[in-house]
Amino acid sequence: MANHSLVAEQFENLEQQIHAGRLGMWIFLATEIMFFGGMFTGYTVYRTMYPAAFAMASQKTSYLLGTINTFVLLTSSLTVVLALHSARLAKRKALITCLVLTILLGFLFLGFKFLEYYQHYRDHLLPGYDFVFDPAFYRQAGLFFCFYFAMTGVHALHMIIGVGLMTFLLILAVRDRIKPEYPGHVDIIGLYWHFVDIIWIFLYPLLYLIDRHS
Fold it and tell me: Closest Cα partner for 162 from 76, 75, 74, 68?
């Protein structure tokens, strides 16, 4: 039997509330897809126009750190799935453990990303700020790094927001506010986390792998 204390006053029942929450998140993610889609489209157009320059510039990215971060994010997606599974089975300790692991993996991703940014700063690869590159590809390579920092920077911002949301879930779990009959917060925020991971799955080959050995 549904716990009516979990149902907000604007909903008739818990099922309607769950569906409304999921629909709202999917609509939000659709707008995010359009936002990232513009950057992906612009990147693709210019990469087609300047393939040699973009290939040379992409080799300045850290393949090792990009690969490690891909593994970190895929692992975090697993911990989010396990968190939702634990919430549905009322396994509070397992839920808390999975949320803590997800948060730590999020911080680990951000740490590696900022380390890579520092390496680019050290190697004079910040466009408009002491940018140093082969004169034959100077402007085109600068364009690559403009896209690189814009796309990975916006993604990192989404990761920071995701870590904040996971921290919110952790607080709810510690206070025993997440119930098995309505693990909606974990479900909905989990969708956001998976979306951020999927965006990285597209960024990784575009920025790190294509023409890597050209």
Answer: 76
What is the rounded CA–CA span in Å between residue 86 and residue 109?
A: 24
Per-residue pLDDT, 22:
81
C-beta of residue 206 within 8 angstroms of C-beta of residue 40 = yes
Is the pTM value of this prediction over 0.85?
Answer: yes
Tell me the C-alpha distance between 213 and 11, whole Å.
Answer: 56
Assign domain 9-209 to its CATH superfamily. Answer: Cytochrome c oxidase, subunit III, four-helix bundle (1.20.120.80)
CB contact at 8 A, 56 and 137: yes
| Residue entry with tokens 């466009």 | 127
Contact between 192 and 162 (Cβ < 8 Å): yes
User: 166-204, pLDDT tens digit by residue?
Assistant: 999 999 999 988 888 777 789 899 999 999 999 999 999
Domain boundaries, the chain: 9-209
Residues 24, 80, 157: CA angle, nearest 5 degrees = 65
Q: How far apart are CA 146 and CA 130, in angstroms?
A: 14
Q: Is the dihedral of CA 136, 131, 120, 154 positive or negative?
A: negative
Q: Rounded to whole angstroms, how far apart are CA atoms 205 and 201?
A: 7
Higher pLDDT residue, 81 or 210? 81
C-alpha–C-alpha distance, residues 139 and 53, integer Å: 9
Residue pair 183/63 in contact (Cβ under 8 Å)? The answer is: no
For residue 190 the two structure tokens come to 């989990």
